[in-house]
Here is the input.
Amino acid sequence: MKWAALALVAVLALVQPTEAYLHFTTTRGGQSVTLKWQRSPVRWFARDRGAPGVPATEFQAALARAFATWEAVPTASIAFQFAGFTGAEPFDDDGASVVGFQNHPAMDRVLGATGFLIDTVTGEILESDIFFNTALPWSTAPSGDPTAFDLESVAVHEVGHLLGLGHSALGETEPRPDGGRRVLASGSVMFPISFGRGVTHDRVLQPDDIAGVSELYPDGGFGRATGLARGRVTRNGSGVFGAHVTAFNPATGQIVAGFTLNRDGDFQIAGLAPGPHVIRVEPLDDADAESFFSRRDPVDAGFQPTFHPRLFVAPAGGPGERLTVAVTPR
Here is the structure.
């Protein structure tokens, strides 16, 4: 789900994060099972009703470009197929993945949302629907429209959810006088807060998005060509849950990030280009934590941002040294 300019995002399914990034999971027998499509291509239908300024044909074309953006990742194996227009609504629970406009005026900061029907035993995604809220203005203009939200940009974000990706915390915001937050910069399409009207930035995937989908659907030598950072974040010797861990490549300027996802403070970030990286740990305090984690698993944000004291060298084809980053209380 992606909210409007100052809004936060939440996914309709109550799912938990797994090893790296935030991949959606369910729990079976006390064990985490990753949600993903197990059959490809994924067939999707477009609702046959447009919105003001966006007829159904332009809606379908924008969505097709969004799906193609993810399909074009060379190190991921997922594919999509447009199955036609339909009169069915998103979230009809009919076995068909439907994408369409709906009017939700009470959700006046929500641009769109994604939901799932899953096999809770295998984690297979059986159906995933997306709606875009016509209570807000939309545009498919090639260069964007300053009065409306860019449909393709928001669609790329929602298709990331449809694939099984959660949110990235690679972004910077500031409070708005009227409430909410304004995005200053973002390093991932899966950052949960929209840039705002007229901005087309999120039509293009960032390294963090590419690493996340490639780990979920690996292909093209992803595991052999990239490295991963793994380790633990501690405070006073105990693990820190929900810490945001970034790996910055000073040679390329690329950032890939993850989280500590258990009470031991363990993290793992795959998809790193071989070579030196700066590892930084920071609290998740620049957005609503419930956009990333279930409210029944409160994150620990009571510590100072901390750098690992030396560069981490990511080797090709596997993990490097296991890292420990000790943070200090605020």
Summary: The helical segments are 56-71, 151-163, 207-216, 222-225.
